[in-house]
User: Which sequence fits this backbone?
């Protein structure tokens, strides 16, 4: 077993105790949820940040480790709008942090790694870009990699690792030591861009500088990709889609760990309830704690030019979700957030437990289960959950993307919800929460401010 896969399983196992209490919370009635107050355990109440940037509990501190516009070690600029991230251990003991940049299509390059008027594009060969664009207008998203020393709490180096893509939103880590970066956009070739967008790209976790070969994994479909989670037991990959009428997807690779060799893309359907609307907008058809057997529907024409994959899948019986966003594997399950789900459109968190024979011919005899864990009825509890991750002690850490009071929430093993952090400066969404392999540091982004933070402190309070 590789070091990366061992690390991946260790991180996933952190959830083993973390969600027994979450089920208790999620099964509360709407009235109970509305009257629930936030817990201050285990770290205590938030204290106002003297710098006015990010409030944290006592004895915790943050460090700004990267800022939009900084010059990186390869000479490029840190792109704007940092979003989804994941960490990996390096052989020399450093943390490898791979970071998405959700930069939209635009002319001029001001938010890109290449500076105003794309002055730095000549540092790369056009073949290093997925889409070099027309008239020197390459895709402005992509990924950067930060090599971080958690003992010294400082950046060792940072560099551009994927170029020429657009609106890289979230994604997910793999057990084979790479980051799957997702384009949340489905633009067609035009007078600005030369290639279609809406794909997944794989970026290896490595310490040496340089961009990866930007090859779209077209077998994983073309749609508004959001996040990804890999089940290390089956190597099946799950994908969310950021649409108000989205599907939940599953990709079965032909060759595990070699995604460019193709595979099968499917959509989740609830058994005996084909075409189920899980959003609970008009009617609460699904209750918290309710578990449902699922089946998977094969999808055709997945590299679709019309952005109608979710519509055709729903017509064939797939379940419909409300903006699938953050996703993480752990506790032998896949957890994912639907940002606008529920009667109040405050968000849902779902749990999918794969079949013991997932993606096997006998799967229909032992199907996987889909369960609604959390459906928020009160904005003070959870409001519009987006990116999420799992702490080493088992709590779920959730980034909010709402109208105001952008919080970093925690959910304890007892089902208590607490504020771990708050954006004190702006109304920017929080994104990319992920822990270092050694558990010492929580990384996160304040997206619209273009900041990446490293948070450290007495995490052992969670154990006492």
Assistant:
């Amino acid at each position: 077993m590789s070091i990366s896969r061992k690390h991946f399983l260790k991180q996933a196992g952190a959830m083993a105790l973390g969600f027994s209490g979450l089920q208790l919370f999620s099964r509360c009635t709407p009235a109970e949820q509305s009257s629930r107050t936030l817990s201050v355990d285990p770290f205590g109440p938030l204290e106002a940040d003297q710098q006015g940037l990010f409030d944290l509990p006592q004895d915790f501190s943050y460090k700004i480790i990267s800022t939009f516009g900084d010059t990186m070690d390869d000479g490029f600029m840190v792109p704007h709008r940092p979003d989804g991230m994941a960490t990996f251990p390096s052989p020399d003991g450093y943390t490898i942090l791979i970071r998405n940049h959700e930069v939209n299509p635009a002319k001029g390059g001001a938010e890109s790694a290449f500076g105003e008027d794309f002055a730095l594009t000549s540092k790369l060969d056009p073949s290093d870009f997925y889409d070099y664009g027309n008239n020197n207008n390459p895709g402005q998203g992509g990924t950067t990699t930060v090599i971080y020393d958690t003992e010294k709490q400082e950046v060792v180096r940072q560099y551009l690792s994927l170029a020429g893509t657009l609106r890289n939103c979230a994604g997910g880590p793999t057990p084979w030591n790479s980051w799957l970066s997702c384009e949340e956009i489905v633009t067609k070739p035009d007078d600005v861009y030369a290639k279609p967008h809406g794909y997944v790209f794989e970026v290896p976790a490595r310490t040496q500088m340089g961009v990866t070969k930007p090859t779209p994994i077209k077998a994983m479909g073309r749609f508004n990709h959001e996040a990804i989670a890999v089940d290390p037991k089956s190597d099946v990959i799950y994908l969310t889609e950021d649409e108000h009428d989205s599907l939940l997807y599953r990709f079965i690779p032909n060759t595990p760990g070699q995604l460019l060799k193709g595979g099968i893309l499917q959509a989740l359907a609830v058994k005996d309830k084909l075409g189920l609307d899980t959003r609970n907008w008009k009617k609460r058809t699904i209750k918290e704690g309710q578990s449902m057997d699922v089946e998977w529907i094969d999808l055709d024409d997945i590299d679709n030019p019309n952005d109608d994959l979710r519509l055709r899948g729903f017509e064939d019986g797939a379940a419909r979700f409300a903006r699938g966003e953050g996703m993480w594997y752990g506790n032998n399950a896949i957890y994912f957030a639907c940002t606008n789900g529920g009667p109040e459109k405050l968000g849902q968190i779902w749990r999918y437990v794969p079949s013991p024979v997932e993606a096997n011919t006998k799967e229909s005899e032992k199907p996987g289960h889909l369960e609604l864990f959390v459906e928020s009825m009160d904005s003070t509890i959870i409001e519009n959950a987006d990116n999420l991750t799992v702490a080493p002690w088992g709590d779920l850490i959730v980034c909010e993307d709402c109208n105001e009071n952008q919080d970093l929430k925690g959910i304890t093993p007892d089902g208590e919800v607490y504020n771990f952090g708050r954006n004190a400066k702006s109304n920017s969404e929080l994104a990319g929460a992920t822990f270092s392999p050694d558990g010492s540091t929580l990384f996160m982004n304040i997206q619209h401010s273009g900041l990446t933070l490293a948070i450290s402190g007495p995490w052992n309070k969670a154990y006492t």
Remarks:
- The mean pLDDT is 91.
- The radius of gyration is 21 Å.
- The first strand starts at residue 46 and ends at 47.
- DSSP finds four helices and 26 strands in the chain.
